[in-house]
Write a structure and sequence with these properties.
The structure is a homodimer.
Chain A (H helix, E strand, L loop, with lengths): L12 E7 L5 E7 L1 H10 L3 E4 L4 E4 L8 E8 L6 E7 L15 E3 L5 E3 L7 H5 L2
Parallel strand pairs in A: 1-6
Antiparallel strand pairs in A: 1-2, 3-4, 5-6, 7-8
């Protein structure tokens, strides 16, 4: 059984989440040991929410779950790469498919790319 | 000019590095404000080495530089996504193309995928 190095960032490792078909990077989240073990055993992407300080089964509120298709770890066992099937078509709470919808242009300003897939107000209420 | 949120992880933001052609995730590194600004101004991926506690122009020792082709940031401005041209064919100090050369199999053990592109002993000495 692989052992991840949770010591470098206060008990958390970053998890890069990639669409298993297109290769698009959808988001970055964090896992503590419990989130990592639950992801392995359930096959559903589970993270640790730093803002809410608790386990976060991705999509439990929005329905936009992530089915894990492949898991990789990096050379020094302190970063996870999940290849997932993104249910509902969007990973970002803003409604965009990917959290990385802002591109830096040559002047150093941000430019929005793409369009939201869902309306966050409808999905999360208020 | 965009402002990144360096406050959540002690002055650093994670940077996901992706091959601009294949979409393969090559590595994850960290940037402080100086590394971010130098990446923007130079077009060469520059990080902050947590182990050496100093600015790290990727490839300065190995020659395996990363030419930045596109920069994205995420919804809450605390993660960077770099799309790069990987000079020398390998991003990982182990000689593998990607740092994510270890796959988790259904039993929870790691399996090595692919083969090293270079011999680290030749590149880094020792």
């Amino acid at each position: 059984m692989v052992k991840l190095d949770f010591g470098k960032t206060g008990g958390l490792v970053p998890a890069i989440v990639q669409d298993f078909k297109t290769g698009d990077v959808l988001m970055l989240a964090y896992m503590n040991k419990a989130a990592w073990e639950q992801t392995l055993s359930s096959g559903k992407a589970t993270y640790f929410s730093r803002s809410r300080q608790k386990l976060w089964i991705k999509g439990n509120t929005s329905g936009n779950r992530q089915i894990v298709k492949e898991i990789r770890i990096d050379c020094d066992n302190d970063t996870v790469l999940l290849k997932v099937e993104q249910i509902g078509g969007a990973a970002c709470h803003t409604g965009y498919r990917s959290c990385f919808y802002k591109k830096i242009n040559p002047e150093g300003a941000t430019e929005i790319t793409g369009k939201p897939v869902f309306d966050p107000e409808e999905v999360y209420g208020k």
